[in-house]
Design goal:
Helix content is 30%, strand content 31%. The protein has 154 residues and is an alpha+beta fold. α1 packs antiparallel against α2.
């Protein structure tokens, strides 16, 4: 059976427990249609880039699915009907990742504070090749020659 990674966004005003209940219900839809669910990850409430149905934040959840296409279509149909689900993304993959996803790894890194100081990034440090470049980095443009009234008449 094909493998899928499925992410859905739930409204910001539902609780984490309600999101877990949604996830359990969606797992049941997949299993009822002959599929199986690998790991599920709750990524938490995150800010959205733009508003979706008047929501600025949403609960993000990842589900790894091993199911036929009909089961995934039924899952997406159920989610379109549900008023708590804002968006859905399903991707077919060759293999599921082992261990935590990139989103969970990012959250762990942010919590530990391993990002370093801004000075270590090299912005504005021309000796190391960084920076945005100042005026001396740009080629010089020829300046227009100023003429006087008498020179134009001659």
């Amino acid at each position: 059976m094909p493998l899928y990674e499925h992410v859905f966004l739930a409204r910001q005003d539902v609780t984490a427990q309600q999101v877990e209940e949604l996830t359990t219900r969606f797992k049941g839809v997949i299993e009822a249609n002959g599929g199986s669910v690998g790991k599920t990850e709750y990524w938490g409430v995150k800010s959205l880039t733009y508003r979706i149905a008047k929501n600025r934040k949403a609960h993000f959840t990842l589900i790894n699915i091993d199911a036929p296409a009909a089961a995934v279509q039924e899952l997406e149909r159920q989610q379109r009907i549900d008023e708590d689900v804002l968006r859905v993304l399903t991707l077919r993959v060759e293999a599921h990742e082992d261990g935590p996803s990139a989103m969970l790894q990012k959250r762990d890194r942010d919590e530990r504070g391993e990002r370093g100081e801004r000075g270590e990034r090299g912005f504005g440090d021309r000796e190391r090749g960084g920076g945005f470049g100042g005026r001396e980095d740009r080629p010089r443009r020829p300046r227009p020659v100023e003429t006087t009234q008498n020179e134009e008449d001659a």
